[in-house]
Amino acid sequence: MQSTIESLQVADHKEGFFHLLGIEEGIDRIPHSSVVDDALSKMEYAKVNDILFQLFDRIINRKILYHHQNVLLPNNTFQIGTDGYWTHNYTHPHSVDNQGNNNCPYCLPRVHNKGKANEFTSWVHVIVTFVLICGSGLTIPLYAYPLKANQITNIENHEKFKEECELAAAHVVLPVFRARYPRQSFTFLGDALYANKPFIRLCNRLKFDYIIVLKNTVQKKLNKHCDGLGKTEIYQKHYTHQATTTITKGTIIKKAAWFNVVEMGGEIFTNVLRFEENIIRSDGSSKTLYKGAWLCSRKIFHNNCFKMAERGRSRWGHEDLHNTCKRRGFDIKHDMARSNPNLLMIWKIMIFIAFFITELFFCTIIAQNLQKTRSRMKFSRDILQQFVEISWKVISMTPIMIKPRVQFRFHFGGP
Ligand SMILES: [Zn+2]
Question: Rounded to the nearest whole angstrom, what is the distance from the C-alpha of residue 172 to the centroid of ligand 1?
Answer without folding.
Answer: 20
